[in-house]
Amino acid sequence: MRTFDYEKVKDPQYFRDGRLDAHSDHRYYADQAEASRQESGFVESLNGLWKFHYARNYGSVIPDFEKEEYSCRNWDDIYVPAHIQMEGYDVPQYANTQYPWEGHEEIRPGEIPTAFNPVASYVKYFTVPERMQGKRLFISFQGAESGLALWLNGQFVGYSEDTFTPSEFELTDYVKEGENKLAAQVFKWTSSSWCEDQDFYRFSGIYRDVYLYTVPEVHIRDLRIRAIPDESLQTGELEICTETWGEGTARFCLSCQGEVCFREEHKLSGKDVFTWQVNAPRLWSAEQPDLYDLTIEILDKDGQLQEMIPEKVGFRRFEMKDCIMTLNGKRIVFKGVNRHEFSSVSGRCVSEEELHKDLTVMKQNNINAIRTCHYPNPSILYRLCDEYGLYLIDETNLESHGSWDLVEQTKDYDYIVPNNKPEWLDMMLDRANSMYQRDKNHPAILIWSCGNESYGGKDIFEMSQFFRREDPTRLVHYEGVFRDRSYNDTSDMESQMYPTVASIKEFLAKDRSKPYICCEYTHAMGNSCGGMHLYTDLTDTEPLYQGGFIWDYI
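Above: the chain sequence. Below: its structure as tokens.
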């Protein structure tokens, strides 16, 4: 029987155990009626009250709490999703560049605090709904900070790190008839916390949705959609790649504003690629975010409908021409903001209503772009940006600011994470892959970002090469090469923070090999933005300067 070993949490090479491969965030339904309601019978939410125990460190946890015979029914109740710090346990902690344990425990990269490192133990008793019984059963944690260990009915299911992308596991071999006991432990700081030193409030716990799900006998597990116009913009190519569990047939239908572009039926055989030509495609942009409706119906060998997948498709061509970024053949200027996922009421557990309000205010103020500083956001953000018309720099969950910020004084270059360290590379690539696989179908995303303020080095360069291999239709961003030019090709654009207009002009007078953006500028946390017109004026006179992202939108 597999067991969980807490000592491995201190190892940067241990970041997934039993976790399923990342996949696209497409939704699937049993039929059109479910799709119209946006309520899938394949899904059962586990949001709500869970049993809960708080410990200030691992030595204080209740041993064997996950076992079936141990009753947790007298434990406290806690709401999921939520940060434990917003539910009365531990306290929110704001820190910028320093690590949150500094001044309390002296540790080196990869090590974790021991005296104070809160552990949240969760238990949920549940019965599998009748409609889901007898099928393969899975669980999805959309976000848990920062390490998650999982048991079902006393058996260890798996472990996952990466606070900001889903952690999914198969429960089929562990589930039983009647009541089941689901147990989880969430560790505030793990070895990966050295890569989560973003400038924000520090929380922990299960703070995004949790749900059970099943799949039909024939199921599209992963879906990749690319809709790219040719150079003339008169013909668009739609390419759909599917990874299917089971054998069956797919019916594809593409339409726009009620007008059907095509209907076709094709056999499915594991991994397939289908392409179509679309004449005079409506083009997606922030100014006119035209979207097509794609419907995929999956049938089994007997012609019975297994699932229905509705997706939005945006045709747009984003590329570099003569060192200038263009969208649909025209030079693009980013009038953007950095946006942390944050609510004054509930921390990073943000309601859909608040999200709609944020994006509406942005559009009302002529903001056309968001940098997801400095981690992937929930899938709903990407769907809304597709719909509203907001460009995205989608940023990998990586910031190790505190590992290198003082290195010029200390000269302790071995302290930098991840840099050129092979023991951190797999974790970096896993984070890049988890973000890419989930988000790859959203037309709003123009640029993949390797992370934020994590110095330079080979590991981050390898992340950039991963994005280029997987997705030649987008560009790659990373600001940190400004501080370490050893792998300057990591970023397709020159990206700097808080430069003066004069310094931008001076840089471009010497180096015109890349376009230039300010990934952060006109620091707006307080009395600021007074000289912003100098930057916006520069976009009119210097073609290689293509805008920036205000720090930050709150």
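Residues 333-553 form a domain with the TIM Barrel fold (CATH 3.20.20.80).
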